[in-house]
Protein: Aldose 1-epimerase
Amino acid sequence: MKVEQKPFGTLDGQRIQAYTIRNDHHLEITCLNYGCVITKILTPDRTGNFENIVLGFADIESYETESPYFGAVIGRVAGRIKDGQFELDGKSYTVTKNENGNHLHGGRKGFHRVVWDAAVIDKGGDETGVRFAYTSPNGEEGYPGTVMLTVSYTLNNNNEFLIHYQAQSYQTTLLNMTNHSYFNLSGNLQRDVLQHRLKIDSDKFLELNEQLLPTGKLLDVSGTVFDLRSGRQIQEGVCSDHPQIELAGRGYDHPFLLNKNHDREIVLWEEESGRTLTIETDAVGVVLYTGNQLSETMDVHGVKSKKYLGLCLETQGLPDAIHHSNFPSFVLEKDETFSSRTKYTFGIA
Structure:
């Protein structure tokens, strides 16, 4: 087990470092102190061939100017906040409106566009990683309260990758963090994700409106392409005539309410490579996004980007919960400690 550190470039005079976490089975995860971005994850296929299974760029400039949140930690609030406004403790707040008059993924300079402090975690033996820290000042992107944050990435010899989010605020605020990695288990982007199969243990998904904001309705997955409880090929959903699929740009971009936690509740696999990804979390939900809006102008590790080149499984609270009393709250009270864990296990079918 070891962590290697290398320069990745400079941004506004700040040095960007790449950290590669490697276990004894040669599985590798590379991440940056910029946005806690995960740039590469190298895992073996069924023949033992190690290839990258996430979308990313080779230079920091592309992350700054082109990235659709590739591999980044999102916050303060993942997803959309309607009209960029909310009330908290009797006061009204306006946060950055960076998408169609709404607030998206923490604003123009959310957690994904800041340089975090980084330190190697040396647990000895079978686990190692990197801990990132950032202080989000009061008023950043319009949010109240100064928030102290840490994000830990650790890898062990069971091929388990753990993300641990922690935060504490000096004032009541909102917090709903996630990681926005785009996965493609074919390896080195040899194929798109339409042939991937996905299982999500969820009976309910959120209905969205034309702005991809939750209407407040939790819809039953039964009898629809949103029923992923037994596994379903992504292409089945993309090619369906379900109005919610059409609304989201011919694909999924929907939050699911999880039935259980830390019990193989999300499983992704790709038959040709044999690779599997199992996700277990304490978050109440997961947003499935199948890359419906990916631009065709980007160079992604030497491959031209296109729709469905990768998919996101964003474990988090339900989006826009501040406007829906029937959703679990993501209000972070003053001096309360926030803690959330998501585990990714890489395997072979």
